[in-house]
Amino acid sequence: MNIANIELYVIEMSLKSPFITHLGAVRNREGIIVKIRDKDGVCGYGEGVAFSTPWYTEETVKTSMHMLTDVLIPLLQKHSIKHPEEAAALFQSIRRNHMAKAAIETALWDLYAKGQKQSLAGIIGGTREVIASGVVVATNSIKNALKEIEGYIEEGYQRIKVKINPQQDYEFLSAIRTYYPILPIMADANSAYTLKDLDRLRALDELNLMMIEQPLSPNDIIEHAALQKEIQTPICLDESIVTFEDAKNAVQMGSCQVINIKTGRVGGLTEAKRIHDYCLQHNIPVWCGGMIEFGISRAHNIALASLPGFSIPGDISASSRFWEEDIISPEVTVKNGVIRVPDGSGIGFSINQKRLKETTIFKKEFLF
Ligand SMILES: O=C(O)CCC(=O)C1=CC=C[C@@H](O)[C@@H]1C(=O)O
Ligand SMILES: [Mg+2]
């Protein structure tokens, strides 16, 4: 792919309002932007989605920067590649560190698609012109949740996801259900429960939720299979699925009926697509998860969600859900509940250089 140089930017922005889960609150978001330029001057962009602290997965912005700087970029400097899938294969010699790998692998996909003068969605086999958009409500106040939901419904979002935990589940969700009897609602527990909470989880069955995401431990698929036998609400796995093998095992074990695919969590677009293809073959619907991300990762998510198996609205909301001003132009917008899949080459969005510059707190360049 004739790489000339790679630039890493660590950027930082405040969220418009805090994103609260039982694991803590995100008020400020750091992220990593990867820019890969080839010898023809074409640039591909990727985004590292690890958080500043390891509350969601073990990776952080600092561990990702270490992996990119000291391991992954040096590997690419040593081995020339012709296709992003070769980078994914090369990175298999390194254990885990999926978000760091995805940051660079997705930039290579954007670069590759641009080199072919095709959209990223087109090059990976996307079939949708628009994708259905959903949004996440992450607050511990029912009053705020109802107010937020009202606004999101006015903006046209097709489904709402609500964060739950044993201190905030049945009452919280049933208040929302009472106001909105037919609204598609899903609940995300981020592993807040154990099998001892079976009665609490079973009680949610009557609320007609689309699914419950990751009720049990991130390291488990056995107990999720046992739980799914006891509750009617479909289980969706997020944190438990970090590889293709995890997805295959979970489907075969009956641990979930739905999978949330996040490119960063599984190490890149190559692996995300493999999981999608497997789920499509086995009639397991998938949807694209979010990471409170900036526009570049949001653009990659749009391309991924254009694949045929993404039949459920994902956590792909407008740039304005979290940011006063995003780093891409135009920003991602939701109209009538959908986001248009761009047909320009690569990710189909340009970079808002002014915004990138004013949010950059660290920058480093690697020559090839
Ligand atoms: O990016 C978005 O729109 C929402 C992201 C989101 O819900 C999550 C991001 C990261 C960690 C979690 O709490 C949560 C999730 O688990 O899906
Ligand atoms: Mg989740």
From TrEMBL:
Pfam families named in the record: MR_MLE_C, MR_MLE_N
EC number: 4.2.1.113
Membership in a protein family: Belongs to the mandelate racemase/muconate lactonizing enzyme family. MenC type 2 subfamily.
Pathway: Quinol/quinone metabolism; 1,4-dihydroxy-2-naphthoate biosynthesis; 1,4-dihydroxy-2-naphthoate from chorismate: step 4/7; Quinol/quinone metabolism; menaquinone biosynthesis
Keywords (A to Z) from UniProt: Lyase, Magnesium, Menaquinone biosynthesis, Metal-binding
Active site positions, chain numbering: K163 (proton donor), K262 (proton acceptor)
Enzyme class: lyase
Organism listed in the record: Neobacillus kokaensis
Function per UniProt: Converts 2-succinyl-6-hydroxy-2,4-cyclohexadiene-1-carboxylate (SHCHC) to 2-succinylbenzoate (OSB).
Requisite cofactors: a divalent metal cation
Sequence ranges assigned to domain Mandelate racemase/muconate lactonizing enzyme C-terminal in this UniProt record: 142-234
Tree of life domain: Bacteria
Stored InterPro entries: Enolase-like_C_sf, Enolase-like_N, Enolase_C-like, Mandelate_racemase_C, Mandelate_racemase_N_dom, MenC, OSBS/NAAAR
Binding site for Mg(2+): D188, E213, D238
Protein name as annotated: o-succinylbenzoate synthase
PANTHER family: O-SUCCINYLBENZOATE SYNTHASE, O-SUCCINYLBENZOATE SYNTHASE-RELATED
Catalytic activity of the protein: (1R,6R)-6-hydroxy-2-succinyl-cyclohexa-2,4-diene-1-carboxylate = 2-succinylbenzoate + H2O
